[in-house]
Amino acid sequence: MLTFVPKQTVVPSLLVLWCISFEGVDNAALQAIGVKNSLYDIPGLGERPLMIKAYPAVENYQSDLYEVYAEPYTYDLRAQAAIVVLQGEGENDVKGEIMFVQQHPPIGPVLIRGNITGLPAGRHGFHIHQSGDLRQGCDKLGGHFNPYLLRHGAPTDPIRHAGDLGNVEAGEDGKAEIRIVDPLVSLSGGPRGVVGRALVVTAEVDDLGRGGTADSLTNGQAGKALACGIIAYIR
Ligand SMILES: [Zn+2]
What we know:
By secondary structure, the chain is mainly β. The chain folds into two domains: 2-70, no CATH class; 80-233, Superoxide dismutase, copper/zinc binding domain (Immunoglobulin-like), CATH 2.60.40. The protein has helices spanning 11-21, 27-32, 37-40, 216-219; strands at residues 50-55, 65-70, 80-88, 95-102, 110-117, 122-129, 164-170, 176-182, 198-202, 225-230, 232-233. Strands 3, 4, 5, 6, 7, 8, 9, 10 and 11 form a nine-stranded antiparallel beta sheet that branches. A two-stranded antiparallel ribbon has the order 1-2. A hairpin with a 7-residue loop joins strand 4 and strand 5 (110-117). Residues 1-26 and 33-38 have low confidence and may be disordered. Residues 1-27 form the signal peptide. Belongs to the Cu-Zn superoxide dismutase family. This is superoxide dismutase.
């Protein structure tokens, strides 16, 4: 999440507001801990708190970007969990189960944990694709999930596809253990929602957009899919 927190001084207040708005703290309590009235008494909103997710501007590329949420929320604010059962493409015996958990949707980070077995040793691209339609296996899933129409990058880059989760690394035994905290994807609805889309592990390493070719800025030259699965709600 830190990658996307802008440097403006107003942000700590916004983050505090976000943190405590889930605990039913009232206006007086907000003021007591120094949250500015102006963030709370928004004309037309009464005493409804705002949740704001902020993304910094990138010079010569994009302006500051904000997502602002106010009651009545159109998303379920309770913690959400989803599971991916990865199945090998074709003859591959790649398998895995990957859990996605978002404690505070729609703006909190998502914890991605799990294991993959049967991989060739080394690093492999790990991406969420636009579609979750597996009728043609892992082949026709569209590009990397890219709601903001940006270029391919590393998970830590301010400019990246939302679906860019970087690489996973398998040992000589073919096993990869995954533990990622991603600030951008979400399990709620909205522009960054990934439930219903496909998670893919690729044959080659993702160059994270540093390869110097057009493909590098599209898919990291990560090669064909070894395995894929749909991100599906658990409850
Ligand atoms: Zn990408």
